[in-house]
Structures are given as C-alpha cells and as structure tokens.
Amino acid sequence: MVLTNHDEELGEAFFRKLLNKSLQKRDRLFDTPYYRLIHGEGDRLPGLVVDRYGDFLAVQFRNLIMQERKQMIVTLLSDLLSPMGIYERSDFEMGVDDRIERNTGLLCGKVPDSIEIEENGLRFLVDVKNSQKTGFFFDQRDSRAFCRKITKELSLQKGLDLFSFTGGFGLNMAFSGAEAICVDKSEEDLERARLNSVVNKVDNRLQLVQSDVLAFLNEFEKNDYFDIVVLDPPSFVKHKKELPHGISLFRKLVESTLPLMKDGGILGLCTCAYNIGIEHLVESVRRSTERRGLRFSHLAITLQSPDHPWLLEVPESLYLKCLWGFVEKE
Questions:
Q1: Where are the alpha helices (DSSP H) in the chain?
Q2: Same domain assignment for residues 308 and 201
Q3: Is 272 a catalytic residue?
Q4: pLDDT tens-digit map of 168-178
Q5: Catalytic residue among 147, 182, 270, 272, which?
Q6: Do residues 113 and 141 share a domain?
Q7: pTM value?
Q8: Residue 262 is part of a domain; what is its CATH number?
Q9: Which of 121, 132, 306, 310 could form a disulfide with 318 if both were Cys (CB 3.0 to 4.6 A apart)?
Q10: Which domain does 53 fall in, by range?
C-alpha cells in the first residue's frame, strides 16, 4: 500500500489536499451531491471510502493507517463539506490488516434512518445504517442509466432484475414503461425497493419477489417472457483460487435465465469481482447460448461510474464490468 512517493508527512495538510482534489473532481463530474467522494486507491487514499448523500456522509476505514487517523479525517470532512452527520460503516468482511477494528456508528452530528437521494431523475431512499456496504451502490450508476435508455428506446415491455438489492435496475425499467420483477432474498432490501417504487410512482409496474434467484428461475413457468434481464449477483470470487467456482456459478445463472427470455431479448450480466473479467463473462454466455442453440450479439459494455475511478497502474481498481447483448434464436 503506497500513499505517496514523496518525502512528506502523512498529516492534516496531506489528507486535506487529497480530499479537496477528490471533491473538485466530483464537482466537475456531477451536478448532484450524491456520489462516492473517496474511492480508496482510485483517489490515492487506499483504505478509505466516503459516500456522499447530500448533507450526510458514510465512511469506511479499511486499514490501520486510515483507522489511526479517523478523527483527523472526520474533522477534515466536516471542514470541507459541513455535513449534518457522518456515519461509520467499517463492518466489512475482509481487510488489509486483521488488527483493524470493525466499527459502525455515528461519528458526528445526526444521520436519519432514511435519506432520499436522486440519480438520473429517479429518487432512492437509502439506509446508511443498516443496508449493505455503505448504503447504496453508486458504482452501477452508468449501467442503470444504460438499462433505462435501452428499455425506453426499444420499447421493452417485460423486465427482470435479479439480485435486485433495492430495485435499481427494475425501477429504471419501470420508469421507462416496462413491467418489471425484482428478485432478491433480502426482505429488508425488497421493502426498500417497494418504498422506492412508491416515491417514483411506478409501484403499479413493479413486482417484488423474495426468493433465492436460482430457485425463482427454476420455478418460473413462463418461457419466452422477458424482453430484458439483468443479472447483478454479489461477488462470487473474492480470491483468485475461487475463479473456477465463480465462472461455474455464472454459467448456471445464465443457463437458467435463457429459457425465460424472448427471442431478441437483452441480457445484462454484471460482476463486481476484480478476478472475473469481461472475457469470463463472454465465455459464460458463449457456452450457455451455444448449448441451447442461441446466439449472443454484443450490444455494450458498461463499467463502474467515474466516482469510482480506476487507475492503469492499479489493475485491481477496475472491478465492475457489465456485458450487454441480444439473445437470439439461430
């Protein structure tokens, strides 16, 4: 882990400079105050994550260097943005240093149980205290926008959002006029998706199903039904040795999804695991479609949004990839 190549003190001036630089970059990229402000290595601050929800911040300290400077960083963030509250979500599964503490809780001010944010004209209710990670997956911003764009432009009527979390893809489908089904095993996340559908006035076009995704796919009776399906599973591969197992799971998911898709339907397959590359997604789709006598025609590739910057010299910083294409009968 490298914070600087120069002979300089890792004190207040150093961190203030980098925090200011990250804020200036986001101000150039976004016209709303809802984004990831600090993305670890991508912002030259490995081990630090800061998500901005307007007047509130969610922070995560993932190594000992950042944790030892927690109070200084909180003070600098307060000076920089004057937030109404900062909440810590350092309850991650893995860390660089096993000596660091897993903490959650209020660091300053007040943070409500529900925060309303806006993304591309849609409103989302975020629970930074109890939801996954730091509350919301800003990294899928561009993929959600692409999903909405093609749903509208191609007048797609039936959509399926698998591993839906709080309904990001399904809401964008419904907002573009489609009837969508969101499937997730978390009752709490689906309740948040329901609330999101209400505030966006698309609850009449969004169906929520609490289920294991594979169980849902195996039990769903209608064939040739969906115009668009998005598969956005959690990370199957946390270590390189798990890669064969992860690829096998992707193939199983794709093979179980294909019978539900209309001829010419669109499949979006996403991975948030660095060790799974686009080539692995392509191979999973190729083998699955060939086995069923189908053809996959490439449409687009979307990556993590620019508030999650990736660096050429740090390949691991490019972790999110989504492959989109038409599934057609031979």
A1: 12-29, 64-68, 70-81, 141-153, 168-175, 187-199, 213-219, 243-257, 278-291
A2: yes
A3: yes
A4: 999 999 999 99
A5: 272
A6: no
A7: 0.92
A8: 3.40.50.150
A9: 310
A10: 12-119
